[in-house]
Amino acid sequence: MGDFWVFGYGSLIWNPGFAYVETSRARLAGYRRSLCVKSWVHRGTPERPGLVLGLDRGGSCVGLAFRVPGELHGEVMGYLRARELVTNVYLERRLPVRLADGRQVAAVAYVVDRAHQQYAGRMDELHAAEIVRNAEGQSGPNPTYVLSTLEHLQALGIRDHWLESVALRLKSEK
């Protein structure tokens, strides 16, 4: 198998956890970055769920695409499935992304399953910040996840106005 691409829009941007040989800013059309997944493991618990990012329908999302050597396919896909499909709230898809240099490639991406019980739907930034503020899971505090993701997006010059609004509320109401 040849090289393949993985699309990161949240924590994969700053913590991919797998080897890659190229990275590029990329745009995925038809999906938007959203704190739409109730986290029962990584950033919350079943009793006090946090919120993590998912790709939800509508709009477009700018993130990073990682080119992975084909010989690592089994290893990297095994890692991604163990990381992203813990509770099966995401659906694994190969979707077309446009790279910064204009190339269009198919990339593995994880989109939210709207029929899953962990799908939180769309909410305003005040409600999202309220949920995030007090949640913590196996991977740490939920606010750390949101603020770190935003910090890395900003370092790449990627704007996400809604996530910025959530972060502003998190910082102002400590």
Can you describe this structure?
The protein is α+β, with helices and mostly antiparallel strands and 174 residues long. It has one domain (4-172): Roll (Hypothetical upf0131 protein ytfp). Helices cover 29% and strands 37% of the residues. It is built from five helices and seven strands. It has helices at 11-14, 73-84, 125-133, 142-155, 161-172, and strands at 4-8, 22-39, 50-68, 90-99, 104-112, 136-137, 140-141. Strands 1-3-2-4-5 form a five-stranded mixed β-barrel. A hairpin with a 2-residue loop joins strand 6 and strand 7. Helix 4 (142-155) crosses helix 5 (161-172). The longest helix is centred in the last third of the chain and has 14 residues, at 142-155. The model has no long low-confidence stretch (mean pLDDT 95).
Q: What gap, in angstroms, lies between the N and C termini?
A: 49 Å
Indicate the proportion of strand residues.
Answer: 35-45%
How is the biggest beta sheet arranged? 5 strands, mixed, barrel
Note the quaternary state here: single chain
Low-pLDDT parts are: none
The CATH class: Alpha Beta
Provide the CATH topology.
Hypothetical upf0131 protein ytfp
Write the layout of secondary structure elements.
Blueprint: E1 4-8, H1 11-14, E2 22-39, E3 50-68, H2 73-84, E4 90-99, E5 104-112, H3 125-133, E6 136-137, E7 140-141, H4 142-155, H5 161-172
Helix pairs in contact: 3-5, 4-5
Brief descriptors of the model:
single chain; 174 residues; alpha+beta; Hypothetical upf0131 protein ytfp; 5-stranded mixed barrel; two-stranded antiparallel sheet; 7 strands; 37% strand
